[in-house]
Amino acid sequence: MATTKLLMRDELILNDELPSDVVCIVRERNPYDDTFGPAKQCRFDELPEREFSDGYGGVEGDDVVGFTAHWVYVHAVYDGAEWFQAVPRDVETAMRMTRLPEVGGG
Q1: How many CA atoms lie within 13 A of 66 on its CB side?
Q2: Tell me: the pLDDT tens digits for 11-43?
Q3: Could you tell me the residue ranges of all domains in the chain?
Q4: Exposed, middle or buried: residue 9 (CB in 10 Å: 0-12, 13-18, 19+)?
Q5: Which terminus of the chain, N or C, has less C-beta within 10 A?
Q6: Per-residue pLDDT for 51 more than 70?
Q7: CA 97 from chain center: how many Å?
Q8: What is the pLDDT of residues 56-106, one digit of tens each?
Q9: How far apart, in whole angstroms, are the C-alpha atoms of residue 89 and residue 23?
Q10: Is 82:76 a contact under the CB 8 Å cutoff?
Q11: Cβ count within 10 A of residue 91
């Protein structure tokens, strides 16, 4: 089981960033009818803590984008598996990468 907060935290750690560095935009998923609530700005500690399966199958996570000074954290999905993928905010960082990030899939 996962939460939006835990999945984003894992990606922050990979980029040596702190939860306090993040400003998020979130639309919480209603687990009963797969609709989303209105977009709202929040801090990392205000992210939803509803548990869901992040494995293959249906998409269950919340609609979230996180912003730091250097990265944009995007909720990524492939065949129902869910995680956060960091994408550089500036062109110079992207140009130095050996491979550009691929976000999600089908």
Answers
A1: 31
A2: 999 999 999 999 999 988 887 887 888 999 999
A3: 4-96
A4: middle
A5: C
A6: yes
A7: 20
A8: 777 777 888 999 999 999 988 888 788 888 999 888 888 887 877 777 664
A9: 14
A10: yes
A11: 8
Q: How many residues does the chain have?
A: 106
CA separation for the pair 4, 68 (Å, rounded): 17
- Does residue 7 carry a pLDDT above 60? yes
> Are the CB atoms for 22 and 86 separated by under 8 Å?
no
Residue 23's identity, in one-letter code, is V
Query: Exposed, middle or buried, 101 (CB in 10 Å: 0-12/13-18/19+)?
Result: middle
DSSP states of the chain: -B-HHHHHHHHHHHTT--GGG-EEEEE-B-TTT--B---EEEEGGGS----B--SSSS--S-EEEEE-SSEEEEEEEETTEEEEEEEESSHHHHHH-SS-------
Count of Cβ atoms closer than 10 Å to residue 86 Cβ = 21
